[in-house]
Design a protein that fits this description.
Elements lengths: L1 E5 L3 H12 L3 E6 L2 H7 L6 E4 L5 H7 L7 E4 L4 H13 L5 E5 L3 H8 L4 E3 L5 H10 L1
Parallel strand pairs: 1-2, 1-4, 2-3, 4-5, 5-6
């Protein structure tokens, strides 16, 4: 399965080893060069460094059209919600997970065809469960 992740932080870093060990091909898109350098130690992981492109540009750089799963895990709720919607409606990615911290946004977007995660205590478990289902 091809997994495309938007955002590089502790959550992404914690997910990558398991995703790769279970045979998934993973690409991470981020503007955090230091985090990308840290995770690039995994030989099969692809990283895409972006500075300030449009949403469509950086999703295409990550090969969103070939993704089986898209994980919007940046620290920006609005960026996550927007890219998750683009992945679902424009690129027809079958499995989409959107990280949202704002409870109002969690409620709103959970009714729009994506898995919304926000509870830090079980976020990683929810993401793995969505990908594997």
């Amino acid at each position: 399965m091809q997994v495309l992740i938007l955002g590089c932080g502790r959550l992404t870093e914690s997910l990558i080893p398991t995703l790769i060990q279970t045979g998934h091909r993973v690409t991470v898109i981020s503007e955090d060069r230091k985090c990308l350098e840290t995770i690039s130690k995994f030989p099969t992981l692809e990283v895409v460094f972006v500075t300030a492109p449009t949403l469509q540009d950086f999703l295409r750089q990550g090969n969103v059209d070939h993704a089986d799963a898209f994980l919007a895990l940046s620290g920006d709720d609005h960026l996550n919600a927007m890219t998750a919607q683009i992945a679902i409606h424009t690129h027809e990615v079958p499995k989409v997970v959107c990280r949202l911290e704002n409870p109002y946004l969690q409620q709103l977007y959970s009714s729009l065809g994506m898995t919304v995660v926000g509870d830090m205590t079980k976020m990683s478990q929810d993401i793995h469960q969505t990908i594997e289902s």
